[in-house]
Amino acid sequence: MKGILMITKINESLAQQIVDTVKDVCGQDINFIDEEGTIFASTNTNRIGDFHEIGFQVAQTHETIEVKKESRFYGTQQGVNVPIFHNGSFLAVIGISGEPELVRKFAYLAIRITKLFIREQELEASNRTQQEQMNYIIHALTKGEITNREYLYECLQERKLDKKQKIRVVIFKLKVDYNIANRSSFEQKLFQMFDTLKLPLYTYHYPNDYVAMINEKELSFSLQILKSFAQDNNQILEVGIGSSHELLQLKHSYESAKIALKSLERTGQNIASFDQLDIDIVLGSLDSKIMEHYLEKTVASLCEEDKELLTIYYAEDMSLQKTAERLYLHKNTLQYKLDRIARLSGYNPRTFKEAVVLYIGIIMSK
């Protein structure tokens, strides 16, 4: 990544925060003065906007000037006026009101506090910029919306990401009934896990999704941690792991991760990998209206007891004997129930082709 963003000018909000903090320490009134000699932040709000003659001189000469009681300068009170520099550039003048002999010792303190605040602002700005860059990369790659390919390549290069490396998208979805008041606590655990896995890219998608990229080479190590995290948060979280693709083809991994997530609606589990899916790949790609139409055509007329019977019947590879044993039914009773299902649905579960039609309907209905 590029270096920390450098502040070259102190804004009014930051300056006011600094003067208030310095006054809390030394008890004296503090002013921030710009290069034109205008007070733009002060613990004495009545002075904001006033011209400060000595402050102007300090801004021009870059030299500290002390004003004693007997001195007479426009808009100036007795005190110490010190130029503030950052990375070799002049930023502003900080003036401390009071007898120079008493307040001189606070000048260095004021400089130190100012630099601490500036450094904090730079770090926050840098972190924000890095997160914005991550958001851009992930959005461009997962949506396939690469509007500025040159800038994207520059971002990837800064993060030392090879366009040819294989990556998987992982989607972490908070369940809709999760208490939003606990989100910050969950995010802390999630981001700690991301740090453990050394994930190169991750972001938040409103309202309930977190999208991360996992290097294919690290999958075997990462998978165990992902499964453990999913298990620990199984009441509030679902995880979908996409297929492996080169970085510039990440849209396909993202779409497959969404299919893996959708498959969880039918399995009752809370983590799924696209690579482990079979028929769910097809079902997860279907439009909801098409699925509704299919259900209406096949199993809508069946009650829950009928559907449960078919679920066990298919789990036992359509064996009448094994299904009857599991359901504690006489074989003839089971045959009667299967014939009844055939009459109601129009599909005979005892013939392979029509059994497949019902099987898909049962999976869809879960």
UniProtKB/TrEMBL annotation:
Residues 308-362 form the PucR C-terminal helix-turn-helix domain. Transmembrane segments: none annotated. It holds the Pfam family Diacid_rec. InterPro entries: CdaR-like_regulators, Diacid_rec, PucR_C-HTH_dom, PucR_C-HTH_sf. Residues 11-139 form the Putative sugar diacid recognition domain. PANTHER family: CARBOHYDRATE DIACID REGULATOR. This is Sugar diacid utilization regulator SdaR. It comes from Lachnotalea glycerini.
